[in-house]
Amino acid sequence: MRKAMSAAAAFATAATAVMTMSGAAQAAAAGDSTVYGCRSGNVCIWAQGVEPFNDPHPTVQYSSYGYHNLSNQYGEHAVLNNQYGGATANLCKNYGGTNCVEILFEDDWAYENLTPINSITLNRP
Question: Which region is the signal sequence (predicted)?
Fold first, then answer.
């Protein structure tokens, strides 16, 4: 009888732990701040002339800090800094993240002519 009670108690403890863990996973998913297809923590660019609310599919998403050289980005584009924790992004005229002309703060949008922009940087807070 004692073994049966111990097994039942162990099962109840394990079930409670699983319920607690799945509740935490659900809370994390509910806190996701994907915006028009741009995942939380990313900086996103949509296709030329596209309004993100009409077409929630960014053509490019950057997720790592540092510079990212652009290619084939001409004309007006929507750009979103969907990073968090105070991280910023810069739009730069030169490759390698230099000669930056625009800063995007957390949750900032810009509609920019990317023809003269050759790189974008994601900066730690």
Answer: 1-27
Which residue shows structure tokens 């800090």? 65
Q: Which residues contact 110 (CB under 8 A, 6 or more apart)?
A: 78, 79, 91, 102, 104
CATH number for region 43-123: 2.60.20
Q: Name the residue ranges covered by the structural domains of the chain.
A: 1-31, 43-123
Residue-level pLDDT at 33: 84
12-42 per-position pLDDT tens digit: 433 433 333 333 322 223 346 899 999 999 9
Task: Assess whether pLDDT exceeds 90 at residue 105.
Answer: yes
CA angle 118, 82, 22 (to 5 degrees): 140
User: Percentage of the chain surpassing pLDDT 90?
Assistant: 74
Give 83: exposed, middle or buried? Use CB within 10 Å, 0-12, 13-18, 19+: buried
